[in-house]
Design goal:
The chain has three helices and twelve strands; from the N terminus they run E-E-E-E-H-E-E-H-E-E-E-E-E-E-H. It has 209 residues and is an alpha+beta fold. The strands form three sheets. It has a seven-stranded antiparallel β-sheet, with helices on both faces. A three-stranded antiparallel β-sheet has the order 4-7-8, covered by helices on one side. The chain is globular. The two termini are 20 Å apart.
């Protein structure tokens, strides 16, 4: 696993795995040279079942209850913090063309799993937006999730899986979240109090198809 920094305040790492080469040039958050260059990956829409085939099902994880979920409604007072709030709440960043949501319960955790398919090049921009928001808002901010007020508190980076084009791990106020990108498809996982490792591994396998 090769971990490179791409202008995310020296804290949030882009993890480049063995499935695809990653060309990263260190730079500021506003520099185009600081973006991870995406490699060619099969899109979720090209798989059997489309995006639905790229998201966890009950048959993929033993001991967990998996059901269809609804997209989270997230609002924050500071626009710059919005992508970070979306990641922590299990909501999509940007405007994907297709979205599937699952609510998963098991091993003492409640996890929202979202898989989104983006237009060409837009998925990488979603993760870059999360990185920029981390730079600006990691000390904490307030917002609402599904109409309920939420204090996000201090956000810290945690280790995320490798084997994908981009991946980030975040922890804040009793919530842990992971965002994984393979080509133009992004998986968002947000769990309270955690995202069990077996669940994260299973979604990673589904994402890679």
């Amino acid at each position: 696993m090769d971990v490179r920094r791409v202008g995310w305040g020296g804290a949030l790492a882009v993890l480049c795995g063995g499935l695809a080469a990653c060309d990263v040039v260190a730079g500021g958050g506003d520099s185009a040279e600081g973006l991870l260059k995406p490699s060619v990956q099969a899109s979720a829409s090209a798989r059997p079942g489309g995006v639905d085939g790229a998201v966890l099902g009950g048959q993929d994880v033993e001991g967990f209850s998996v059901g269809k979920g609804a997209r989270a409604e997230v609002a924050v007072g500071v626009d710059a913090c919005a992508p970070l709030a979306y990641a922590l709440a299990g909501a999509v960043v940007g405007e994907p063309s297709s979205v599937e949501v699952r609510d998963v319960v098991g091993e003492g955790a409640e996890v929202r799993v979202v898989v989104a398919e983006y237009g060409a090049g837009q998925a990488a921009g979603a993760l870059d937006a999360i990185g920029a928001a981390f730079d600006s808002c990691a000390e904490g901010f307030e917002g609402t999730v599904d109409g309920e007020r939420r204090e996000f508190g201090k956000v810290v980076a945690v280790t995320a899986p490798d084997g994908v084009d981009q991946a980030v791990g975040l922890s804040a106020g009793g919530t842990r979240a992971f965002v994984l990108r393979a080509g133009d498809t992004v998986a968002y996982l947000s769990g309270t109090p955690d995202v069990p490792g077996v669940l994260l591994d299973a979604q990673l396998l589904k994402l890679l198809g």
